[in-house]
Amino acid sequence: MFTIGQLCKQFNLSRSTLLYYDKIGLLKPSARSEANYRLYTEADKKKMELINTYRQTGLSLEEITQIVDSDESKSCSILEQRLLQLNKEINQLRQQQQVIIQLIEQQSLHAKSRNINKEQWVQLLRATGLTDADMTRWHIEFEKAMPEGHQDFLECLGIDEKEIKAIRAWSRQGDSLPE
Fold it and tell me: Where are the alpha helices (DSSP H) in 38-146?
């Protein structure tokens, strides 16, 4: 059995956090001591590990409660929704990053941004010896193998939505690059 203090220390949580988890029914202690202190079992500890993992994904306590108290299909649904939300947030952050880069327009900032644009990417591919035909095949294979990853990658390069749609369309058809 674990005391509230032991569990707090193990998971780097405050006592008030575990008391709150108890209050909302997320993690109730399995037992009480003779002095009425909360006691947690090994199963409670495993549940706390699960809660901690879900907290790292950014899920709300309400969502975590739903996952912990439901079947696997419900948890997959909630996690898929969170993943879609994260993808949207990442895309918004990339757009913000591009706007900031455009506003500052300093070459030194480009190096610090940990971001690569379309021109830099094409220049890098050409420097490695890839031809236009090679790059076209690269896009076709990327779209075939990982369409959503291809979309994310193109967005990461700061390519506008219209051009991304065009690239993905000819990639799906296996056509050559449009002039």
Answer: 42-56, 61-68, 72-104, 107-112, 118-127, 132-145
